[in-house]
Amino acid sequence: MLRNITKKDVNNFKEWFDNYVYTFKTGDEHQQENIALKEEHTRRVCKEILDLGKELGLDKNELCLSETAALFHDIGRFEQYARYHTFVDSQSVDHSLLGVTILKDNNILCSLDEPVQDVILRTIRYHNRATLPREETETCLFFAKLLRDADKLDIWRVVTDYYQQKDGKRNGAIECGLPDTPEISEEVYYDLMNKNIVDIKHVKNLNDFKLLQIGWVFDINFSPTFQRIKARHYLDMIRDVLPKGKNIQDVFAVVQSFLQGR
Ligand SMILES: [Fe+2]
Fold it and tell me: Which residue of 70, 110, 122, 208 could cross-link 49, Cys pair, CB 3.0 to 4.6 Å?
């Protein structure tokens, strides 16, 4: 099924991606920064997915499919930012749906077998869902899980870099416009204590948002991803920028014991 996708296809897709993104490199410095943020994120997710995929023993075609899904997973982000000046889907558009529409409208994947196109588009469509659909093929779910892991690995990198920067410059696009107030919402605390991902509806401030990022560990699929989370100390870096109270200690005790078992 996956025979018809090769490195040559991937190189053509990369060329199209570069030209497409170039058309968004206009506007003020802030806009350019946010476009560059997503462009660099995309490149890193491509690298993450290839590293994970190789470790999981994928063949050449499967790696090409994975890389293509990673390359295009956030293709809707550029148009989203140009139109709405935000990356918050609930305040603008679902960026995965917009991405799929852009790929279809431009006939980007038409050189591939239809089943392959289909898996790529559905993988992209599912990458930002709270949970994966039950009624789906094993193949599609596998690639969707792989993309979600690779994407999270790089978002952790983006946010931990951001939290650690010393100049204190704020970026509303990374903070999703949330207020930096000192409390932690009770619902967020209980989501994590129950080893669930945090429901976005419970997120009221920046602390909650940082805790939501912690909670992604409960939605990780593959052991090479867990190894990278531990080796890169992402969760410790987020903990460093959270309040030091008992509730945070409780949450980290749960998260650490969960991670140790992976
Ligand atoms: Fe992404």
Answer: 70
Separation of CA 183 and ligand 1 centre (Å):
28
For 68-106, how does the pLDDT look when each residue is reduced to its tens digit (9 = 90+)? 999 999 999 999 999 999 998 989 999 999 999 999 999
C-alpha of residue 154 to centroid of ligand 1, in Å = 8
Q: What are phi and psi of 106, to 5 degrees?
A: -95, 5
Separation of CA 65 and ligand 1 centre (Å): 16
Secondary structure letter of residue 114 according to DSSP: H
| CA 42 to centroid of ligand 1, rounded, Å | 7
For the segment 129-154, what is each residue's pLDDT rounded down to a tens digit? 988 999 999 999 999 999 999 999 99
149 Cα to the center of ligand 1, angstroms: 10
d(CA 125, CA 229): 25
d(CA 37, CA 116): 29
